[in-house]
Backbone:
C-alpha cells in the first residue's frame, strides 16, 4: 500500500459520503480531476449518453478500481482521461493541464509521454514479437525503461521473442502491461485487463499491476465489472448510468494473490 | 530498426500475395511507359544524330536534265545554304545466285569522296576510288539481304546497257533510312537496291555528261523551306522539273516520322490507360488493407503515435509496393524495349540505334506511378489516420442491413440463406461493390484493347489484300504505252486476267495544305483493284471528278463537292482544278483515283496506260516472269503476295508485338484485381463463414457465399468491361491513324470473348485459391479472435 493511500485512509475512513473527493488532507498530489463530464455519441442508429456529469479525482500513486455494469460509462471515462476521446462537455485536467481544450497534437503528446494503456483484448500487434510490441512504445517515449526490463517485471523474460500467436491469453495481457509500463508512465489506465482471462491467469495479471503500482509508484486505474477486484484497490469508484454512484476507500487492501473468483 | 519499421516489413510479408499483385499492376504501367518512351526516344535521338552527322539535306528536287552551269544560279536562291547536283538513274540489277529481277536506284557521288550533303556512313570497305568507273557502294540492307561483301561483283543495267561492277563498300545514307521502292509501302531489301558510283562514270553511262537531274540542298538558318522550294521551282521549271520538296515528301523521312508519331501517341495513351487502372486498383486495395488495420492504428494512436508518423507508415507501405513495381517495370520495360529496338533496326537502317535507358524516363515512370499511388491511397491513408483513437477501440457496430427492394419485390422467396447473405453483402455497400466491379471491368477492358489491336491489324491487312488489291502481279512501265498492251499481256503464259491503269504523280493542294501522291486512272468498275465505300462495298468511279482516300480527304480538309488543286508532276508542269466526287475507304496507304479516260484528258494525251494488274496461274509464274522481263518498257514487277507477307511481318514485328505484350500484361492485371478482391472478401467474411460452418452449414454452402460474391461481381463486370474496352479501343484507333495505315475501329467477337474469358478464368483461379484457403481456416481460432 502506498504512503498516499494510507494517509488518505487514516484521514477519511471508507464511506461513500464524498464522491468528488476534492480535498483529501494528506493525500498525494492530484493527477486527474474531472468536473461535470458528459459524453454523447452515436453508435449505428442509436444515440448513447455514455456520461451524464461525472466528477472524479485521482491521486498520485493510488490504485483505483472503477466498477460498473456494461454501459455504465466506465470505458468512456477512461478513454477521455487517457486522451483517446474528447468529452461533449465538462472538463478533465491532468496535473492542471486541461485535456478538454487540448489540440489533437497535444493529446497525442500527452498519451505518448504520460499514459500507459492496457486493453481488454490486449491489442498486441500480431506481426511483432513480445519485445517488439514493447519497443513500439519505447521507440517514441522520452524516458523509457529497456523493453527487456519491462518484460522481466511482468515475468516474461523468457518469452521475449515469441509472437502473440505463440502465447497464452495471460501472457499476451502481460506483454500488453509491459508495453504500457515500459515508458514509465505517470498513469496506467487498464480497461477490463482480466476480462478475457480465466481466474488464475487474471490474478497473475493483477499481481503484475499491483507490483507496478508498488514499485514504480504509478497511479493505476482499473476498469472492471468484477467487484472482487475492488478488494485490491485503495479506492473503489462505482459507476452507473453515466454517473458516479459512490466512491469507497478500502481500509484493508488485499493483495491480488489472496483473491479468487 | 524501429519496431514500427519492422511491423512494416512483416506486414508486407503477410500481404505478399496482394502486394505482389499490386506491384505487378504498377509494373505493367511502368513497363508500357518505359517501352513506349524509350523506343520513341531512341528512334528520335538516333534519327537526329544520324541526320546531323551525315549533313542530311533539307530540300530535294528532281528534273529531266539541266546543265551543270545552272548550279551557280541555283546558289543565288535566297535562303539556300549548300546545294549539290547529282545524277539519279533507275537501274536493274543482276545478283549472282538470285533469279528474281532486282530494281535499283543508282546515284552519283562526287569523284571518290564524300558528298557535302547526305554523307555516307561506311559500314564496310571504301568509297569508289577516284576515276574508277567499275566500282559502286551499295546500301547495307541490300548487301545484308544477299550476303554481299566489299569486293563482290554485280551486273547493273543502266539505260539498257549492262555493265559489270564491283562493290567497293557498304554504306548507310540518311536519305534511305527506310529503304523502299517508290511504289511500295514496305521495304523489300532483296528486290530493291540503292547504289552509288562516281559522277563521271554514271554521267557517261546515263548520257548526262555536264548535266544533272537531281539536287539536294540545305537551308540557311531561319530560311523558309517553302520559299526556297518556290525559288528552286522557278529556276528549274525550264529544265523539266518533276518535283521540288522538303524532307516531308521524302519517303524514308515520311515513314520514319509516321512511326515516331505513332510511338509518341502510344507513349501517352497506353501508359495513361495502364496507370489509370493502376491508380484505381491501388485505391480499392489499399483502402481495404488499411481498413483491416484500423484497430492497430487506434492502438498506435493510443500510445502516442502522431498522425504524421502513421500516415508516413502507411505511405511507406504503399511506397515499398510502388517501388517494387516500378523496379520490376523498369527492368522488364528496358528488356522489352531493347528487344523492340532490334526489330526496328530491321526496318530503319541506322549505323546503330542509340538505345539508352535515360534517368528522366525512369524518374517519369516513378513520378507517374507515385502520383497514381498518391491518388489511389492518399485518401484511404488519411481517413484511417484521422479516426479518433477511442472510436476505433469500440467494438464494430453491427453493420446496417436492410432488405433491398430488389430482394423484397423479386426473388426474396427464391433465395436460399447463403445467397441471401451474398446479395445483402453486395447491396449493403453499393459503392464498394461498384468499385470492385469497376476494377474488374477495367482489366477486362485492357484485355479487350490488346485483342482488338491484334485482330484489327489482321482485319486491316485482310481488307487490303482480299477486297482492295485482288491482283496477283503488279506491273509498271517506264513510260506511258498505248492501251492495246492489255491484249499483248493477255497472251503471255499463265495470265488469266489483265487490267491496265494510268498512274500520274501529283501534288494535291487544298488551301495551305499540300500532299504529294499519285492519281490512279482506272476502269470505271475496276475488278482487280477495288475502291470501297464506307460499308466496304465496291464502288464505281464517276465519269468525272476525283476520289480520295477518306483519311487523305479529311487530312486536306476537303468535303465531297470541293475543288482540289492538282499539280501534275509529270511532263510539263500544270495545275488543274478537279472536284472531289467521293471518298474511298482503304486501310493501307493514301491515294487519289479517277477514270483512266478522264486522267488521259487531264494529261492531254490519247488513251495511254503505264501500269497493269494481272491474275495469273501460279504454276506458270516462272515462265511468265521470264517473258515479262523480256518485254521492253517494263520497269517493275511486283508480287502482291510478297507485299502482303511483308506488311504482315512488319505489323507482326511492331504493332502486334506491342499488342501481344499488352494482352499479357492485361491478363496479369485481370488476375491481380480479381485475386485481390477475393482476398479482401475472404478477410472480411472469414468470421461469418467460420460461424456458419460451426453452425453446421456444409463446406460447399459456405464456400458458395465466398465464391458466389466473386462470381456475381465478375458477371456484373463483364458488360461494363466491354463498354470500357470499346472506349480504350476508340482511343487507340484515334492515336494510330496515319498515312501508312489506319487500323479500323472494328471490335471482333474474339475481343469480347477474350475480355470476358480472361476475367472468368482469373475469377475461377482466384475462387479456387480462396476455397482452399477456407479449407485451411482454423474455425475455432477465428471465432475466438476479436475483430
Residues:
Amino acid at each position: 500500500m502506498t504512503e498516499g493511500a494510507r494517509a488518505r485512509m487514516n484521514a477519511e475512513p471508507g464511506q461513500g459520503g464524498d464522491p468528488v473527493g476534492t480535498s483529501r488532507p494528506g493525500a498525494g498530489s492530484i493527477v486527474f480531476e474531472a468536473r461535470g463530464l458528459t459524453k454523447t455519441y452515436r453508435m449505428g442508429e442509436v444515440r448513447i449518453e455514455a456520461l451524464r456529469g461525472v466528477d472524479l479525482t485521482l491521486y498520485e500513486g493510488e490504485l483505483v478500481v472503477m466498477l460498473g455494469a456494461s454501459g455504465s460509462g466506465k470505458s468512456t471515462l477512461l478513454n477521455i482521461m487517457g486522451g483517446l476521446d474528447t468529452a461533449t462537455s465538462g472538463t478533465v485536467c491532468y496535473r492542471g493541464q486541461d485535456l478538454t481544450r487540448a489540440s489533437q497534437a497535444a493529446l497525442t503528446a500527452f498519451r505518448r509521454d504520460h499514459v500507459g494503456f492496457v486493453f481488454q483484448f490486449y491489442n498486441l500487434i500480431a506481426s511483432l514479437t513480445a519485445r517488439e510490441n514493447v519497443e513500439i512504445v519505447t521507440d517514441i517515449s522520452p524516458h523509457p525503461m529497456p523493453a527487456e526490463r519491462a518484460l522481466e517485471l511482468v515475468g516474461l523474460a523468457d518469452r521475449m521473442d515469441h509472437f502473440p500467436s505463440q502465447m497464452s491469453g495471460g501472457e499476451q495481457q502481460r506483454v500488453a502491461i509491459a508495453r504500457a509500463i515500459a515508458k514509465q508512465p505517470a498513469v496506467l489506465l487498464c480497461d477490463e485487463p482480466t476480462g478475457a482471462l480465466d481466474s488464475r491467469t487474471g490474478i497473475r495479471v493483477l499481481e503484475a499491476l499491483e507490483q507496478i503500482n508498488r514499485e514504480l509508484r504509478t497511479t493505476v486505474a482499473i476498469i472492471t465489472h468484477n467487484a472482487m477486484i475492488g478488494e485490491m484497490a485503495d479506492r473503489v469508484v462505482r459507476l452507473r448510468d453515466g454517473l458516479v454512484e459512490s466512491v469507497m476507500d478500502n481500509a484493508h487492501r488485499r493483495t491480488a494473490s489472496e483473491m479468487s473468483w | 530498426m524501429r519496431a514500427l519499421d519492422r511491423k512494416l516489413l512483416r506486414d508486407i510479408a503477410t500481404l505478399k500475395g496482394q502486394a505482389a499483385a499490386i506491384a505487378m499492376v504498377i509494373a505493367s504501367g511502368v513497363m508500357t511507359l518505359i517501352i513506349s518512351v524509350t523506343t520513341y526516344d531512341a528512334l528520335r535521338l538516333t534519327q537526329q544524330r544520324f541526320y546531323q552527322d551525315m549533313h542530311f539535306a533539307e530540300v530535294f528536287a528532281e528534273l529531266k536534265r539541266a546543265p551543270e552551269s545552272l548550279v551557280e544560279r541555283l546558289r543565288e536562291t535566297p535562303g539556300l545554304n549548300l546545294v549539290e547536283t547529282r545524277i539519279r538513274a533507275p537501274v536493274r540489277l543482276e545478283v549472282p545466285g538470285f533469279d528474281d529481277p532486282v530494281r535499283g536506284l543508282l546515284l552519283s557521288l562526287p569523284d571518290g569522296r564524300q558528298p557535302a550533303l547526305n554523307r555516307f556512313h561506311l559500314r564496310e570497305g571504301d568509297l569508289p576510288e577516284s576515276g574508277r568507273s567499275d566500282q559502286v557502294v551499295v546500301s547495307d540492307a541490300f548487301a545484308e539481304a544477299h550476303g554481299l561483301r566489299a569486293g563482290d561483283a554485280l551486273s547493273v543495267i543502266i539505260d539498257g546497257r549492262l555493265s559489270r561492277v564491283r562493290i567497293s563498300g557498304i554504306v548507310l545514307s540518311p536519305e534511305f533510312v527506310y529503304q523502299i521502292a517508290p511504289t511500295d509501302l514496305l521495304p523489300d531489301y532483296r528486290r530493291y537496291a540503292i547504289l552509288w558510283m562516281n559522277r563521271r562514270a554514271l554521267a557517261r553511262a546515263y548520257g548526262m555528261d555536264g548535266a544533272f537531274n537531281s539536287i539536294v540542298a540545305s537551308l540557311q538558318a531561319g530560311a523558309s523551306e517553302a520559299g526556297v522550294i518556290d525559288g528552286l521551282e522557278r529556276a528549274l521549271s525550264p529544265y523539266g522539273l518533276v518535283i521540288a520538296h522538303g524532307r516531308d515528301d521524302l519517303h524514308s523521312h515520311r515513314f520514319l516520322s509516321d512511326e515516331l508519331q505513332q510511338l509518341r501517341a502510344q507513349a501517352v495513351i497506353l501508359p495513361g490507360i495502364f496507370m489509370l487502372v493502376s491508380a484505381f486498383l491501388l485505391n480499392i486495395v489499399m483502402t481495404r488493407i488499411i481498413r483491416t488495420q484500423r484497430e492497430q492504428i487506434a492502438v498506435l494512436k493510443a500510445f502516442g503515435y502522431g498522425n504524421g508518423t502513421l500516415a508516413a507508415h502507411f505511405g511507406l507501405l504503399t511506397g515499398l509496393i510502388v517501388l517494387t513495381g516500378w523496379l520490376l517495370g523498369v527492368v522488364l520495360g528496358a528488356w522489352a524495349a531493347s528487344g523492340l529496338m532490334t526489330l526496328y533496326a530491321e526496318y530503319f537502317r541506322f549505323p546503330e540505334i542509340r538505345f539508352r535507358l535515360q534517368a528522366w524516363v525512369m524518374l517519369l515512370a516513378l513520378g507517374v506511378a507515385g502520383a497514381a499511388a498518391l491518388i489511389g491511397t492518399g485518401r484511404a491513408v488519411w481517413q484511417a489516420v484521422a479516426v479518433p483513437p477511442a472510436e476505433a477501440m469500440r467494438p464494430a457496430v453491427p453493420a446496417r442491413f436492410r432488405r433491398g427492394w430488389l430482394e423484397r419485390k423479386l426473388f426474396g422467396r427464391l433465395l436460399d440463406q447463403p445467397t441471401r447473405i451474398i446479395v445483402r453483402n453486395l447491396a449493403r455497400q453499393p459503392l464498394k461493390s461498384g468499385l470492385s466491379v469497376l476494377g474488374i471491368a477495367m482489366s477486362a477492358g485492357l484485355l479487350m484493347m490488346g485483342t482488338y489491336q491484334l485482330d484489327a491489324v489482321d482485319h486491316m491487312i485482310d481488307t487490303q489484300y482480299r477486297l482492295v488489291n485482288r491482283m496477283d502481279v503488279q506491273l509498271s512501265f517506264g513510260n506511258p504505252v498505248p492501251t492495246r498492251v492489255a491484249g499483248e499481256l493477255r497472251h503471255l503464259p499463265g495470265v488469266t486476267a489483265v487490267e491496265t491503269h494510268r498512274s500520274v504523280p501529283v501534288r494535291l493542294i487544298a488551301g495551305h495544305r499540300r500532299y504529294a501522291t499519285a492519281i490512279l486512272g482506272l476502269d470505271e468498275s475496276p475488278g482487280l483493284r477495288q475502291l470501297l465505300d464506307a460499308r466496304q462495298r465496291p464502288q464505281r468511279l464517276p465519269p468525272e471528278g476525283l476520289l480520295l482516300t477518306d483519311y487523305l480527304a479529311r487530312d486536306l480538309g476537303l468535303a465531297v463537292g470541293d475543288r482540289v488543286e492538282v499539280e501534275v508532276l509529270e511532263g510539263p508542269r500544270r495545275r488543274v482544278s478537279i472536284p472531289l466526287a467521293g471518298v474511298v475507304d482503304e486501310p493501307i496507304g493514301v491515294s487519289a483515283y479517277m477514270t483512266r479516260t478522264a486522267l488521259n484528258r487531264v494529261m492531254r494525251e490519247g488513251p495511254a496506260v503505264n501500269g497493269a494488274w494481272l491474275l495469273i496461274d501460279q504454276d506458270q509464274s516462272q515462265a511468265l516472269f521470264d517473258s515479262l522481263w523480256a518485254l521492253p518498257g517494263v520497269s517493275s514487277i511486283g508480287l502482291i503476295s510478297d507485299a502482303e507477307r511483308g506488311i504482315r511481318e512488319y505489323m507482326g514485328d511492331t504493332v502486334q508485338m506491342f499488342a501481344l505484350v499488352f494482352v499479357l500484361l492485361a491478363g496479369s492485371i485481370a488476375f491481380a484485381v480479381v485475386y485481390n478482391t477475393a482476398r479482401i472478401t475472404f478477410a472480411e467474411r472469414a468470421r461469418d463463414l467460420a460461424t456458419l460452418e460451426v453452425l453446421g452449414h456444409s463446406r460447399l454452402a459456405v464456400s458458395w457465399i465466398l465464391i458466389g460474391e466473386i462470381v456475381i461481381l465478375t458477371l456484373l463486370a463483364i458488360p461494363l468491361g466491354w463498354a470500357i474496352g470499346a472506349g480504350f479501343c476508340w482511343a487507340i484507333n484515334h492515336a494510330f491513324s496515319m498515312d501508312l495505315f489506319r487500323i479500323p475501329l472494328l471490335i471482333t467477337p474474339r475481343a469480347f470473348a477474350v475480355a470476358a474469358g480472361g476475367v472468368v478464368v482469373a475469377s475461377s483461379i482466384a475462387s479456387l485459391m480462396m476455397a482452399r484457403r477456407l479449407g485451411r481456416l482454423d474455425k475455432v481460432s477465428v471465432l475466438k479472435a476479436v475483430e
Remarks:
- Chain B has 23 helices and 20 strands.
- Chain B has a mean pLDDT of 85.
- Chain B has three domains: 1-56+253-394, 57-252, 468-642.
